[in-house]
Amino acid sequence: MTVKFRRRAAGVLVGAALGFASLTACSMNANTVAEIGDQTITTQELDQALEDAYADPIVGDALEEQGEAFRTEYLNDMLSYEISKAVAAEAGVSVSDEEIDDMFEESLQGQSIESVQEAAAAQGTPLTAEQMRMRIATNLVNAKFGEEVTGTTQEELSAEKFEELQKQREENPGQYSTYDVQATVTADQAFADDWAAKVNEQGMTLQEAVDSNPDENNPAGTNEVSSETVDGAQMAQNPDVLEQLQAIDEGDTGVIVQGPDQNGAFVYLVVTMDKVNLTPDADLQAQADQAAQQEFFQAGMTEAAAQAKKIDIDVNPRYGTVEYPQQGLPSIGTPNPNTFSEPEQAADPSGGVPGGGLPGGVPGGVPTS
Question: Which residues of the chain form CATH 1.10.4030?
């Protein structure tokens, strides 16, 4: 999750704005990070969560190196999690801890949490198990809203899309197939016809046929035969070529004609069809699941964004301002470090900096860039 920070130019108007913000912000306790409905995120809670994250044996060091940027990311996760719970409660949507645990387990796909963390860290996006769980809970709320908006379940929608894909495959098998072929190219139809005939009538391989009568006018290397897999879905952009490709039976060799180009020239592809692979049901089901999930996700995010506007959300300006997207839950944007006096010092069992700061940083400090 990336938060962009904007530098503020100094000036009279900015100073006046900051002064006004200082007056209006004083209603929030300096040790409060955010208030979502009747829930409060305190500086101590945030600091303790960060200390726990930095102590993670797998990703802790990487997260600590990110410093203030990670604090903003983690705070957004906490904010989204609390908002999702408040939004669900406001809308009468039930989301149990058991459902979150089940969805978390399903998302791991049989992997351990540690292996998922290692994979994420290798991609440059380290995160803690607690972050995973908060994001899973937020996604579950989106899914619940998706069911309400669409009037169906994700499983039922996936089944409908699977049937649609099966029908499309039946009507357009060429687009739902891959083709294992050997192929070469020439600009001379006589060579193309000769090579195809030698393969089909004399039992030569395509490479043997080309070697027996090479096209000396071909650029260097183009008398070589290549083995490749052609995706029918991609070839659908050139329906004439796909139609000619489909006309070649397995074990046969044919000539596909392309052209003319803007200069009136033709190209002749000589193709030996090794195997035609119709997209299996398992792949269609995976496509259907992905499409249904995406539709639910978009519908749920839009509804969650609308419901979130009914929740009272206040954020300490030191940590940023609330931004409301058209889809999804609010997030924290531009911080304003000049609106509060320093938070009161409080006992910090984690050993971090009291009052909301990061270890090694200014107490109550705010991410800047």
Answer: 12-151+287-332
Tokens of 89: 């409660």
Q: Return d(Cα 70, Cα 47) in angstroms, integer.
A: 12
Predicted confidence (pLDDT) per residue in 79-125, tens digit: 989 999 998 998 888 888 999 999 899 889 899 999 999 999 999 99
State the DSSP string of 194-228: HHHHHHHHH---HHHHHHHS--TTSPTTTTS-EEE
Sheet holding 32-36, edge to edge: 39-42, 32-36, 313-315
Please name which of 212, 206, 244 lies closest in space to residue 225, comparing C-alpha atoms. 206
Closest residue by Cα to residue 81 from 16, 136, 127: 136
Q: Which residues contact 274 (CB under 8 A, 6 or more apart)?
A: 180, 181, 182, 227, 250, 251
pLDDT at 136 over 50: yes
pLDDT digits (tens, 9 = 90+) for 2-60: 333 333 333 333 333 333 333 334 456 889 999 999 999 999 999 999 999 999 999 99
Q: What is the DSSP string of 235-267?
A: HTTSHHHHHHHHTSPTT-EEEEEE---TTS--E
* Fold of the domain spanning 177-278: Elongation Factor Tu (Ef-tu); domain 3 (2.40.30)
Q: Please give the structure tokens belonging to residue 86.
A: 């408040």
Q: How high is the pLDDT of residue 5? A: 31
* Ranges in the chain annotated CATH 2.40.30: 177-278
What is the chain's length? 369
Beta bridge partners of 182: 227, 272
71 sits in which H/E element: helix 68-91
Is 288:280 a contact under the CB 8 Å cutoff? no
Establish whether the linkage from the previous residue to 260 is cis, with ω within 30° of 0.
yes
- Which of 83-92, 173-182, 183-192, 218-227 has the weakest average pLDDT? 218-227
* Tokens linked to 334: 């531009």
- Fold observed for domain 12-151+287-332: Triger factor/SurA peptide-binding fold (1.10.4030)
